[in-house]
Design a protein that fits this description.
Layout lengths: L20 H8 L4 H18 L4 H5 L3 H13 L4 H20 L28 H8 L7 H16 L3 H6 L5 E4 L2 E8 L3 E6 L2 H11 L27 H14 L10 H14 L4 H8 L4 H5 L19
Antiparallel strand pairs: 1-2, 2-3
Helix pairs in contact: 1-5, 2-5, 7-9, 7-11
Length: 313
């Protein structure tokens, strides 16, 4: 969604978005590309649902319009977290319009949002045995197989997000203070230099030894095999497809329920289970709050840790 390319262009259900100067300023003010994409997609979703067709309609919507949208999202199966994020995006836009005295009120303010369980993360993690099977499954006799092998190692041994994989550069793998590291650009453009496991180091070395762009430190680490000379980074959609394809190949039960974020959940879960200090895990995965990291700690939910086993009458 381009919130703003041509003056006075009407928004329709066919993804035509009106050109609104102040809305453009609002969106441009965000630094992170991921945030911009998330916010603009949320606003587009509302515009399409409400069939907003003029500037005046957008700026004078009322709370009943947003409640209808919220309820439709819930009825369509969107998670509580998704509903909340979309409402927060729309609220951010109207906060900006109110500050500029363009909209009279923020119609999102005061509306109830679905409750989100802040104690645990719903993303399912994989078992150690499943991860081992997945990591061993790519065909390392081909460049594509080597690329996928290294990519999967980055996901499972750093817990980084798919967007970070997309932005990873060849020059981001180097030695520092006696350790090999990856310079990972995470959500919100946070630079995160992570000292990495020897198995991940080995996979990256073997992969880079076979590809022609390995000497270009500014080249994307992972590129498409078919159009390798263009040296374009793998799209996040391609990263998701690659991840899912290996889960399917390895016959992971209910593989459809897993996502790339499952690799992140697995990394955090295993690091905590192996008694890595939660502060270290938080730093590695760039969580702003340690409470977020603790949401991945499933140890307290394991049956063997039930308090029932600690009493004897």
């Amino acid at each position: 969604m381009n919130l703003i390319n041509k003056s006075n262009e009407l928004t329709t259900r066919n993804n035509q978005i009106i050109s609104i100067p102040e809305e453009s300023v609002w969106l441009s003010n965000f630094i992170s590309k991921d945030t911009k994409r998330t916010y603009k997609n949320a606003v587009l979703n509302f515009l399409q649902f409400s069939n907003i067709q003029s500037l005046e309609e957008l700026r004078t919507i009322n709370q009943s319009d947003i409640l209808s949208w919220r309820d439709d999202l819930i009825d369509s199966g969107a998670s509580n977290r998704t509903v909340n994020n979309r409402m927060a995006s729309l609220s951010s836009l109207f906060n900006h319009l109110c500050e500029k005295q363009i909209a009279p009120i923020n119609p999102v303010k005061g509306l109830k949002r679905p409750k989100v369980d802040q104690r645990t993360i719903k993303t399912p993690a994989l078992t150690v045995e499943q991860v081992r099977t997945i990591l061993d499954s790519p065909n390392k006799k081909t460049v594509k197989g080597l690329r996928d092998w290294a990519l999967l190692h980055v996901l499972f041994y750093t817990g980084c997000r798919e967007g970070a994989i997309h932005k990873l550069k060849v020059g981001g793998f180097y030695e520092r203070s006696g350790y090999f590291v990856l310079d990972i650009n995470e959500k919100g453009d946070k630079e995160n230099i992570v000292a990495i496991h020897h198995e991940l180091q080995a996979s990256l070395r073997e992969y880079l030894a076979k590809v022609e762009h390995s000497k270009d430190i500014n080249a994307p680490m992972f590129i498409g095999v078919k159009n390798k000379y263009a040296r374009l980074p793998l799209a996040t959609s391609s990263i998701r497809d690659i991840f899912k394809s290996y889960l399917k190949k390895c016959n992971i039960p209910n593989y459809e329920k897993y996502s790339v974020h499952s690799a992140r959940a697995t990394f955090i879960t295993e690091a905590l289970r192996n008694n890595c200090p939660v502060e270290n895990v938080q730093q590695t995965v760039t969580h702003a709050n340690i409470s977020t990291t603790l949401m991945y700690d499933t140890r307290k939910q394991e049956p063997k840790n039930s308090a029932s086993f600690k009493v004897d009458f």
